[in-house]
6-phosphogluconolactonase (Lingula anatina), 241 residues
Amino acid sequence: MAAPIIEVRETEAEVARELCSLVAKKANQAIEQKGVFTVGVSGGSLQKHLCNGLPGETTDWTKWHIFFCDERVVPFDNDDSTYKYYRDNLLGKVPLPKENLVPIDPSLPASEAATDYISKLRKVFPGTELPRFDMLLLGMGPDGHTCSLFPGHKLLDVTDVIVASITDSPKPPPQRITLTLPVVNNTACAVFMSCGESKAEILKRVLEGSEADPLPAARVRPTNGELHWFLDQSAAKLLKS
Ligand SMILES: O=C1O[C@H](COP(=O)(O)O)[C@@H](O)[C@H](O)[C@H]1O
């Protein structure tokens, strides 16, 4: 398990530029090595930085397969839909084939949407092994949640499925699906972006704490991959170094 690589920049805009440049670098390496790039994206504050910054990078978009690390089970015309954001703000800007941005089926109940998403993932990750994403792009909420894995929630212990559903998310909307921790920790490269003063205290707990019951974001430790944290000065201000 590699130690986290922590990058601190003065402003959120600089953090976003660095992040997008790393994503493009990893994408191009994966495409060169095996012809495809598999990436999971998150919603929340991260989405606008990816959609603004990635179109400026040089890469072969036709080789990208973009999944959602988590998704809210709401219709595609609802502003809570993460798919809606990427569809409206990325698809038209880059030559990514529409079918390579893989949405959930929001017409299904959450548990069925999770099962359906597993079958969509299995088209790109066939077989029964844990999927190994080239990269997972993650956010962290002020409570330390990541994906839709919330502190103290039983979903943190799920190991028998690769995508799970939640119907009591403490952060609305309540119905969601999420990659489970074994999949998150099987990625070749997990990357968090966390900016702003509101994240400073939780970040200290996640990166420097030694809690018996670690917060969800602290449980992201790829077993055979890299872990990056991209922070701005405000978020990093309580860290020791
Ligand atoms: O609800 C969610 O929150 C997290 C964190 O969002 P942020 O706005 O605090 O950065 C996000 O990573 C996740 O995808 C989303 O569903």
Observations:
- Residues 5-224 form a domain with the Rossmann fold fold (CATH 3.40.50.1360).
- The CA atoms of residues 181 and 219 lie 8 Å apart.
- Helices lie at 12-34, 46-53, 82-91, 110-124, 181-184, 200-208, 233-236.
